[in-house]
From TrEMBL:
This is HesA/MoeB/ThiF family protein. SUPFAM superfamilies: Activating enzymes of the ubiquitin-like proteins. InterPro entries: ThiF/MoeB/HesA (IPR045886), ThiF_NAD_FAD-bd (IPR000594), Ubiquitin-activating_enz (IPR035985). NCBIfam families: PRK05690.1. It comes from Thalassotalea fonticola.
Length: 254
């Protein structure tokens, strides 16, 4: 399948990149990415994925747009307040690129048969903000053998990690954070605050890693935790390894 003239024009600056090229653009067109969580991370990530010409995007979130979201959730406009985030996002993304097929699922991720959905997707972006959803997503991606691109942000700090579950014995999100439940209620954006552009940085990094996974899989920084400090303007990387006490990996190996 070749690109149409319109597609050549739309994606010309991307096709010019030697890392993408025409073949890479066709690969993006034939790809399906699931994005869970349509908040401050999901909004910028989705904008770049739709703009880049990912063929199919599945959006999962059960929240509605609130006035207090607009400081950082850049897909939404004031007239979206009260509307389901998946609907508002679908409308905005369709306006940006109507060639992208969008599946909007207005549910909590825990109520979705995610393992089944992952059978039809190349990768998943975790843009959620709570431990339960993160553990649920991690386990589903592990079971399905689908790569997970995970990010989080709080205050002026962000973090990013890619878990290549199609590789044998990849560490998982829960190897890194085996016991998040207790901290979760103490530390979230609702009571701690978050610097809006940090979410833009981290969501954009998720889109970067997702696109790279599709067109240049060898270039992805798997098994590393990238830490971003906005106030110091610093990035740090920590190597990730398996945690032999990880309950999620234990379930998988039976
Ligand atoms: Zn694990």
């Amino acid at each position: 399948m070749n690109l149409s003239d319109q597609e050549y024009i739309r994606y010309s600056r991307q096709v010019m990149l030697e890392q993408v090229g025409e073949q890479g653009q066709i690969t993006l067109k034939n790809s399906h990415i699931i994005v869970v969580g349509l908040g401050g991370l999901g909004c910028p990530a989705l904008q770049y994925l739709a703009a880049a010409g990912i063929g199919e995007l599945t959006l999962i979130d059960d929240d509605v747009v609130d006035l207090s979201n607009l400081q950082r959730q850049v897909l939404y406009r004031s007239n979206h307040i009260g509307k389901a985030k998946v609907e508002a996002a679908e409308q905005q993304l369709y306006g940006l690129n109507s060639q992208v097929k969008i599946n909007a699922i207005n549910k909590k991720v825990e109520q979705v048969n995610l393992v089944k959905l992952l059978e039809k997707a190349g990768l998943l972006l975790d843009c959620t903000d709570n431990a339960n959803s993160r553990y649920f997503i991690n386990q589903a991606c592990q079971q399905a053998g689908v790569t997970l691109v995970s990010a989080a942000a709080i205050g002026g700090n962000g973090q990013l990690a890619v878990f290549n579950f199609n590789q044998h014995k990849s560490p998982c999100y829960r190897c890194l954070y085996p016991d998040l439940e207790q901290q979760d209620t103490a530390l979230n954006c609702q009571n701690t605050g978050v610097f809006g552009p940090v979410l833009g940085v981290m969501g954009s990094l998720q889109a970067i890693e997702a696109i790279k996974l599709l067109v240049q899989p060898g270039q992805v920084t798997a098994n590393k935790l990238m830490l971003f400090d906005a106030w110091q303007l610093k990035f740090n990387a920590i190597k990730l390894s398996h945690n032999s006490l990880c309950p999620s990996c234990a379930t998988l190996t039976g």
